[in-house]
């Protein structure tokens, strides 16, 4: 007789694949032993059983990615010692090849960063590459990049070993139990109901249902945009002399990985133009299932894959396997507490990397549940980053085919998605296109990236890690901002009205700075968690005694809204309205911004009448709009909050009036270069939940003595009491004007590696690439060390001399902003 289900558990995990058992295992390691895993059929029956089991790093460009990967690699290599069950892990090595100069440059950029984070990737010669992978046709290879400790594991054995480890820690695992419903009350998950009507109450419910997660979440109103796609690998008959220790080879040019498989060779495809599978819903009874291969569609991709290992054509095909894997719209996982339900967590959408990233993700989620805060930067994987639009059938149908090829192909710093576009378009879109805008996509928004002289010229001729064809046009936009005036469509900024008798209490509770100011004032502030880690950086504007406007970047829309809602206390009356779709934000910046505005309004725009960090209602043409005197580019200017129905008229009026002042449209590339010259911080790009405002140089916006305090006040006070931090964010300017910065480049002080860049751009006014990054040393990082140190930044294997600064290298005294 099978063991009966409990009626209560501290944590119920839905799904018995790699992610579910990893989460259970790591929860028990934290002492949370009352854990129940419910698997609808048998462990591994969804997608885990047919995974390739690769334990390889790929190209990692964030600390979080490195931490997730290295934890899994180290755990899988040693788990058998703990459980007595083999994981099949074998460190056969991992080899990435580069057959063009751009790929070599990309690899050389990221290899030092990965080594900094305990991934021993080394560049090897073409001959060494051939020696490691003798069955390949590698004559076109310019360089190889090799990680000796990487390899492969057996997915089923690994999952069973983890399951045993979880049971050893107290977890209970039940197979043949289908969860039909997530139970909730008062906005919080309270347990689950099984298909046969049994109820298990719980403090936490965790969705680890793989490709079934979207439809299970939807029943509870939870938005989980992920879509299954056909995923192929081919296994050949035995290849004579093929070594069992052949390294795993990854080749972006063929969109294929290659590894030994029981004497044959496995060719795993991540082909462009993949096929979504079961757009409506995944069958509930699909277990250990396969999909009938589409030979006609996949044939050309297999031909390309074989071109790298032509000798494999001399043996037969043992198996062409097609099975589903689930993918997210941006190829990053869905992890964290859902915004729709408190105490409901999720880890799914692993993008075919569920074995590789299962342990690291399970550890992160377990710590998040246990501690209330994630232990790593989760801004790129947080489940609250998406809107409901990305989960629609049409979006999943159109974006799905692009994802596999995008994941495995060659990458550039500014390439983006081509499918499922025009999701969110400013009302100014057509006018911007007519002005020569090239649009990039960010969080569903069509964002002008740069402007060409004409619409016909608005195209990227060749992607590159070096200067592209739009470089000079972007430089002209930058110079216009510094010398004349620019106009920017910033409708992507998220805008929320927060009003009600307890609006001030909510805003004060969340904000490090003092927002209890006179109506008409703007306040720049950080929001932090109880540990002092960033949750947002934004402006809070007081519109009236009981009314505020919160403005934050488009990448923080869901997170900011969730944080505000979660911190309204019982009995408080606060109404939050998302005004983003209703307001078109038009920014006017530059030394001639005041002269331009005086041409279109009767309001007094002088510094005395309209000082920095204030707002007013002003007339522009036929309309009365809100003008905010604030800047993210380091120049005099205003952000105009325009009702969307008036935006086209106001844009036209400004463009016509601005001709005499050299007005230019400017895009996101220019926004980035301008703000980096001023060393302005941006949550989600430069700072994250593992950083704090003191070390990030934003202590001026933290008021530790403000009445009532704020969330995280005690943590920041403790950090402040420690004196000058040993870890600080600095600005860097390369002394050689030729190299470019994008982020993740390693930083050296007096020959010692001390940090890495968070982000970079080009300082056209400063005369070189500019970036910001955290530097950590063994003593307080005083100004003298910063100013007198010998600084270098490593770019593609070359160390470049740099100037470091605690203060902005452009207009440190803020005279241009406050004039």
UniProtKB/TrEMBL annotation:
Domain spans labelled GCVT N-terminal: 428-706
Keywords of this entry: Oxidoreductase
UniProt domain Aminomethyltransferase C-terminal: residue ranges: 728-811
Domain FAD dependent oxidoreductase central stretches: 371-426
Keyword Coiled coil (UniProt): no
GO MF terms, alphabetically ordered: oxidoreductase activity
Pfam families cross-referenced by the UniProt entry: DAO (PF01266), FAO_M (PF16350), GCV_T (PF01571), GCV_T_C (PF08669)
The keyword Transmembrane belongs to this UniProt entry's keyword annotation: no
Domain FAD dependent oxidoreductase: start-end pairs: 12-368
Protein family membership: Belongs to the GcvT family.
Name of this protein: 4-methylaminobutanoate oxidase (Formaldehyde-forming)
Native organism: Shimia gijangensis
